[in-house]
Specification:
By secondary structure, the chain is of the alpha+beta class. It folds into two domains: about 160 residues, 2-Layer Sandwich (Chloramphenicol Acetyltransferase); about 250 residues, Chloramphenicol Acetyltransferase (2-Layer Sandwich), CATH 3.30.559. The protein contains 13 helices and 15 strands. The strands form three sheets. Strands 5-6-7-2-13-12 form a six-stranded mixed β-sheet, sandwiched between helices. A six-stranded mixed β-sheet has the order 8-15-14-11-9-10. A hairpin with a 3-residue loop joins strand 6 and strand 7.
Amino acid sequence: MKALSPADQLFLWLEKRQQPMHVGGLQLFSFPEGAGPKYVTELAELLRTYSEPEYPFNQRLTKRLGSYYWKEDHHFDLEHHFRHEALPKPGRIRELLTHISAEHSNLMDRQRPLWECHLIEGVRGRRFALYNKAHHSLIDGMSAIRMATRALSNDPNAKDLPPWWAMQPKKREATSPTATDFISSLTQLSNSAGKQLSTIPTVIREVYKSVQQANENPDTVSIFQAPQCILNAPITGSRRFAAQSYSMDRIKAIGKAMRATMNDVVLAICGSALRNYLINQHALPDQPLIAMVPVSLRKDDSEGGNQIAMILANLGTHIADPSDRLSVIKASVKDAKKRMSQMTPEEALNYTALTMAPTGLNLLTGLAPGLQAFNVVISNVPGPKKACYWNGAKLEGMYPVSIPLDGIALNITLLSYEDQLEFGLTACRRTLPSMQRLLDYLENGIKELEVAADL
């Protein structure tokens, strides 16, 4: 048996009916040339032959003395984990997203390994889909994306590729923070006590400076600046998932014309979409929304190590002009990255944990609903740069399906694939009605920036 880390156990303790703690991914494929009408059925038969899962997909939970452990499941039943399903006609993307929304709402059985794979046929246009989900205590979102990518091939002629549960495990790598890793960062404050204590003077000084700067400049973000908003209401267990691909060239062209990074432009697009959505719901706060955003602090071309921090970014939702909104976002992100870059890794980690503490405290106890560090999570994750195939089928899109939390009812996660940015929006269905309209508002956000940039 293997004990779960404190952070992984925390994802289990946080789980409740209205707050499932699994991450997922939707992959959309087109049929290979010459594929017959039984192609997906034959693919399902092939996948069923992989009945012996590799680690960690053969592990189930057990509990001793109040703590969770992993142990091998000696009664593994593939039929429970792998499901072959069909969409109702007419099999549009609307029906597919409705199906994923319903599946992502369901809790998983803790008496079995905490993962599922859904092979979905009947998608209009000779396409099929894969929806994978796994509990965050078993695998984090970034690792799930890497595993799903490793199951693919750049060769359209490669056949008999195993599914992700049957791949040989790789040595665990340091990964970028995912949308819920601010919870994990809170637990780090109790680890390596000597090192952590030595960071306290710097952390307190930087928090104080950020509060002072926020008092002098309303566009600067500090720890308690996020306004109350419908995005931060209590959630139910019902989910709505929306997804769309947007051209990366359009985003890059805006950034080049307006001297902004691609991440800045993405935040501006999201800020525009959220502003229009909240106006439509008669719920736009007077103060700007604050996003929690993982960003890179790497100063060189090195690849090793983890040089990622989670910052708070002003989304400028109180500003109607798209150019002015982008300027506020650029300044906000630049200020936050500068502050982080001047700290040691331990100081940056603890600064992140302290600034996220109000949200973490409320999430764990519900005692401080007025202490809101941020309103929404926006993550941008690198994906495959070349076209990918799975048993001859071309991957057309790859969309993250993430975790809304009580008080953080919307999660926006992006994945880059080839020349596309794949947006995956996951929200509480009741808290944020008609959330799928955000897709139209995202397109509008791109168009208004293109106009502002004279493109």
